[in-house]
Amino acid sequence: MNDHDSRQRFLFDGTDIRGEITSLATSYQTLVAQQQYPEPVAKLFGEFLVAASLLSATLKFSGIVTIQAMGNGPLSAIMAECSQGTKLRGIVRGDFDAGSKAKCLQDFLGNASLAITIEPEGGERYQGIVPMESDNLSGCLEHYFNQSEQLPTQIKISADKQLATGVLVQQMPNRDTAEKVAADWAHISALMQTLQAEEQLSLSHAEQLYRLFHEDGVRLFEPEALHFFCSCSRQRTEQALISLGSEEIYDICKEQGSVQITCEFCNEKYEFHKNHVDDMFSKPPPIIH
Questions:
Q1: Is this prediction's pTM over 0.70?
Q2: What would the pLDDT profile of 107-140 be if each residue is shown by its tens digit?
Q3: Which ranges constitute the DSSP H helices of 81-192?
Q4: Which member of 61, 78, 131, 140 has the greatest number of CB atoms within 10 A?
């Protein structure tokens, strides 16, 4: 396997079906290590990160894709975000010990819904919400595409301790006859069903696609690098504190000696002593770009 932390587009000659394939290793391991998730929780988190990467690749514009599940199970929330197509971050909340005993999606999240939020740069935010009725994330995402986007879509996602990987194929709006479109999709969809988790976790992108589609004129494009990225900064943290008001911040500083903030995404710690708080509230708020 040599496609770690990358995503590649692929197309089928003579059809209007496109695909994306992605694998996360270092970026996935970094996020898991920062929060010390148990292995079952980490693997589900890896699936969400892969899903965010795959969905981001389907956008025709630069922006942020967020996939978030909220439920009443041991895990109350799980979120993964892909910004500008290549930058990943995410978080899991809940009882990790109880979650580590889960066997399927409902065991983790209970009665849950899945929200897909798309935020174009400089554009209007869009959100689609579907119930999480499938026992795996791939099935929930396929339901989202079929219901919200009305694009036939198949997704296969797998994860272990070291790697999270996934493949998406999607029927695009087309100019062919309905009969040809249906036949092409039925053929590619049937082949996708044969892809096994063991193959996803051990074979390169090219090897996976060759095994599945070597008779179907598949063309694999150059890889895009993916990486963990957190947008937190001391400046942004100052802005958040200023929004709480000086009275509350000075009270915390008096009681605790300083104000300490830890980023929930990357565990970066920011500390503000009284002299820093004085500076914060004595100058105009900075402009964040």
A1: yes
A2: 999 999 999 999 988 888 999 999 999 999 999 9
A3: 96-99, 105-109, 137-144, 178-192
A4: 78
